[in-house]
Amino acid sequence: MNRRIFLLSGAAVLGATGTMYGTWHLLDSGRRSAAASAAASTGAFEITRTEAEWRAMLTDAQFMVLRQEATEQPWSSPLNDEKRAGTYHCAGCDLPVYASDAKYDSGTGWPSFTEALPDAVRTKPDTSLFATRTEVHCRRCGGHFGHIFDDGPEPTGKRHCLNGLALNFRPDNAEA
Description:
Blueprint: H1 3-41, H2 51-57, H3 60-66, E1 86-90, E2 96-99, E3 103-104, E4 112-113, E5 121-126, E6 133-138, E7 144-149, E8 159-162, E9 167-171
């Protein structure tokens, strides 16, 4: 095999991997959703529902994100452009989880926050993409929000990189 064929083959594999990321991630989410379902069925969360109940109350896309730990496409959430004062709530159980004053534009294409509200989220390791990341979930219903990275601004240095589909925004009364 000559060098050119080797390099072109490698580029083709990387390109296919990047294109297939969304599909692969959704396939991988089925394995992880089984663990989330097991936790919910044992009463590990304050709010538990059957899969049928979750499907009835969420859109298909919300179900994929919140219950199967999928990731929405970057730049697809209207919450990226949300600038009003208010509170972001879990789309699964309505728990207030993030304040608007912790939101910032990370340039990543997903709503990003420096920190969650007190006692609003729980985390767990996620090793699904060949590296360990920190996954963030609603502490009350176990809904998947996204991931936390160590490249955020002060004061926390954290970037809570979230799926907009997992959140509902409520503006403060003065701005409603």
